[in-house]
Amino acid sequence: MAKNALSKTNIQAYQNFLRSEEKSNATCEKYLRDIRNFMVFAGRQPVDKALTIGWKKQLEAQGYAVRSINSMLASVNSLFGFLGWHDCKVKNIRLQRRAYCAEEKELTKAEYLRLLEAARENEQLHLLLQTICGTGIRVSELQHFTLEAVRRGEITVSCKSKTRTILIPGKLRKLLMKYASGHHITSGPIFRGSTGKPLNRSHIWRLMKQLCKTADVKATKVFPHNLRKLFARVFYGIEKDIAKLADILGHSSINTTRIYIMTTGAEHRRKIEQLGLVV
């Protein structure tokens, strides 16, 4: 049965609902961005399942990755659930789990070290890269690295109704304290802009992209989340404990952690060749 077209009123109500559910700012922005995308497609048409299927097909035709499409569908299905429009929901595209990740997207440890070398003249950026990659934090959690927390040696982060503690390695803690002292930071966030406010995601992204040419690393590999994934792969390579890694990363599901520790196709191929089953 057809529904009324989406309005600013019910979108605002849904946004308030997300806030009441204590969703993170990044999650709220992502859901609302996907919903606005759907609203542009819908125009003034009444919303029903056929319309949602049409949007799904358009996303496929536009070349979006299956994971991206399913993520956008999840946002819209969540809205429909809130509005009680359950008959408008559509199914995700089925995707077989891959055993390896695309090599052109994985940041290697050698490339990370080249990025560090390229950032050496920018003390803040040099330390920022080490802080994200050395602890596995989300870029949004960098603001919690205050002088007070670093002095204690641990960061407390509350997100999505969960609270976890991030331990700071001793060497990193010394570097952070030295940086704070040298820049006359006596309290609050250590990584801050010229206005004194914490560095935001887009600013950090731009700073990292500026290193690509000097470090000879593809720009498609250089973004904060890839530092977090590199931490995950290196940690798992040493500990082989996926449950512990999931706790450190703040994942609710180990399935999410499995995605982080996938090796590249080249490494996957080497392991298969080592089986010695083709003579």
Question: How would you characterize this protein structure?
Answer:
- The strands form 2 sheets. This protein has a two-stranded parallel sheet. The chain has a two-stranded antiparallel ribbon with strand order 2-3.
- The protein is globular.
- The mean pLDDT is 89.
- It starts with 7 loop residues before the first helix and ends in a 6-residue tail after the last helix.
- It contains 14 helices and 4 strands.
- Helix 2 (25-42) packs across helix 4 (66-83), helix 6 (123-135) packs across helix 11 (224-239) and helix 12 (242-249) crosses helix 13 (254-260).
- 56% of the residues lie in helices and 6% in strands.
- It is mainly alpha-helical.
Topology:
Blueprint: H1 8-20, H2 25-42, H3 49-61, H4 66-83, E1 100-101, H5 109-118, H6 123-135, H7 147-152, E2 154-159, E3 162-167, H8 170-182, H9 201-209, H10 212-215, H11 224-239, H12 242-249, H13 254-260, E4 263-264, H14 265-273
- Spatially, the strands of the biggest sheet line up as 1-4
Order of helices and strands: HHHHEHHHEEHHHHHHEH
Report the portion of residues in β strands: 5-15%
- The helicity comes to 55-70%
Radius of gyration: 22 Å
Question: Helix tally?
Answer: 14
Helix/strand-derived category reads mainly alpha
Which of globular, elongated, flat, extended, rod-shaped describes the shape?
Answer: globular
How many DSSP E strands?
Answer: 4
Low-confidence stretches: none
The rounded distance between the terminal residues' Cα atoms is: 61 Å
- Provide the residue-averaged pLDDT: 89
| Multimeric status of the protein | single chain
Largest sheet: 2 strands, parallel
